[in-house]
Amino acid sequence: MAPSSTYIVSGSVDKTVRIWDTTTGNEVMKMEGHSDQVNSVAFAPNSMQIVSGSDDKTIRIWDATTGNEVMQMKGHKYRVCSVTFSPNGVQIVSGSADKTVRVWDVIIGNQVMKMEGHTDWVQSVAFAPNSVQIVSGSNDRTVRIWDAITGNEVMKMGGHTGYVLSVAFSPNGAQIVSGSSDKTVRVWDATTGNEMTKSDRHTDSVWSVAFSPNGAKIVSGSSDKTVRLWDAMMGNEMIKIDAHTRNVWSVAFSPNGTQIVSGSDDNTVRIWDATTGNKVTKMEGCRDQVNSVAFSPNGAQIVSGSGDNTVQIWDATTRNEVTKMEGHSDQVNSVAFSPNGAQILSGSGDSTVRIWDATTGNEVTKMKGHSGIVWSVAFSSNGAQIVSGSADNTVRIWDAMTGNEVMKIEGHTDWVWSVAFSPNGAQIVSGSSDKTVQIWDATTGNKLMKMKGHSDWVQSVAFSPNGAQIVSGSADNTVWIWDAMTGNKVMKMQGHFDWVHSVAFSPNGAHIVSGSHDNTVQIWDAMTGNKVAKMEGHSDRVNSVALSPNGAQIVSGSMDKTVWIWDATTPNKAIMMGSWLFQGEGWVVLSENPHIHLFWYPPELHYTCDPTPCLHIISTKPQKPQTYLRLDSGALGSNWESIFSP
Question: How many domains does the chain fold into?
Fold first, then answer.
């Protein structure tokens, strides 16, 4: 698959190389020139060229735009089984039935190096991510690592009892995966050569293996006609896809890791959803409960953390999924954007805190240290530090650049549900199952204050924009405001009928928004404590709420597997369902004056009527059809006379 995920390249026994559009499935280009079957193909890192290896003993480079042959490289004595570009795009490595591994210069086509050592066909080759090492798999049942600069053999790994048909490095270069005719998929330590995991669920030869872009998963294709996904750390099978009607020769992940492409001698190339294993037909969104949501600093995107172990980025305007990040092995409980919007932070039930590149979706850093579920994570205002709260009863501070643990703060006697930095980064607030809200010095870790008052777990805490106050939400169904300087209780807000899972201040500090187990989102006046608005629509508990940077919108994530966006500027209209009511006979009328008819709704469309006041819903659950009334092209008053004549 091309780095852009837009195109797929395939090689065939019909001697051709073809490019396909991943969206439409249509063939874009056919390249002819090989005189025998094509065994291996790969895009260059910049997607501008394609390399192919064939039974005709040649390696060819093609222009991916025009389809023209750019170069032909000869040197192998027998069929070329495997080819690929180096990550920097300047070299090509090939493996052949002549038992050699060869490196070629992409610019002039000269052979740079020949590596000998295998005693049988070399079936598969791959560069390390840093381009300085090469891994090869052979019919001699070994996996070998070579120095790409000197050509020296660095390591030989034995263990397979059959031909090694496919090999690949993990994205960080620390591991190697191999697939074999012994029906197993094995993961090796690239430094020591030790076997780390062995997966043996395939019932026939494994022809192709690949790591996901974040290194958390492995995909394999087999003669048993299946494509399987494995946990790269544990070796457990995650998904089995009954993919093809004949041998699966090749598999690969899309660059963002959300899709898998497979090629088979049933003459098809297929694309699969890497999370569900379903054949891809359209874009999909949240597949499980939404535990956490947050706006990007510019308000253009929303990030969500879900019970399906993923972190997803959404376009706040179109509602389309922009990126899905996979790597956590348990549900994602908390997410946050960095202050500059370039990175995303996540905390998970797998006890890790992770940083992701918000543009590419790649995992940047994984932080280990907690011995329990990570319930909450947050960046400091300058983005230099990260704070996390966990079921191990601790609050921890991490260096956002290195991922190193800076400090471990102990003091809570039960789970820490929520943590946040003060706006100036000098303090940290935490809420716990021990029913307390505590403030800590972010430099020394010393406890500055302990606030008591809640009669049940404190599920969420946040500082006001000026740092003068703290808001807390609790399983006692209340929202409290505290003085951050003295620790005194300022106000208690009641109105929810079940646990309050999430609270947040508006950017100007004038309002507080809360999300609850009673399925509602509520807005409160931060000065008086009065309820300003109650927004209903979620069909299950609201786990997380956040406001856009300009305070105009509220985003909520729920157990009902949806993310909703609400208009925060007209909350009263939200309560009144947009100031209109739908009457059963078909008329839509003003809610404040039902005698005023706005428009008539045809009977055949009544089932599509949805008076929900939210602006957008992001969901994969089957939604009933909806009807939208557009007035942007309407003609009102005297303008109607120029359009309609009785």
Answer: 2
